[in-house]
Amino acid sequence: MPTSKSPNTAKLDRVVAEARRNAEQHEQGYREQALKLYPWICGRCAREFTRTNLQQLTVHHKDHNHDNNPADGSNWELLCIYCHDNEHSRYMDSAGRMPGSEPELSATHQPFADLKSLLKGRE
What we know:
By secondary structure, this protein is mostly helical. The chain has a domain at about 15-100: His-Me finger endonuclease fold (3-Layer(aba) Sandwich). About 40% of the residues lie in helices and about 10% in strands. The protein contains 3 helices and 2 strands, in the order αββαα. The radius of gyration is 25 Å and the shape is elongated. The model has no long low-confidence stretch (mean pLDDT about 80).
């Protein structure tokens, strides 16, 4: 009689929680640095922020690489959540994909490539 192994969900939950915690700490690290380096103003729409609405000001990576975090902040710009979303939408539209994602495959079949020769005998 085969026994089925149930996944160790407690261990999986711990791993996922730790990964999320690490990502949040990493993000908080460069976000805090960027907030100290730059004025609290959106780099696109020039909206000004205060402590009460600072959570709406995000750090955008100019090269779209979230692992590229130089201490001088040269790869960062502060954008409001709306401009940040717009920036990523424009990037996706122009580049077709984000860095690290799979490239889109293009069609190679040409259904009308030989149409002229196929129709030649029907004239």
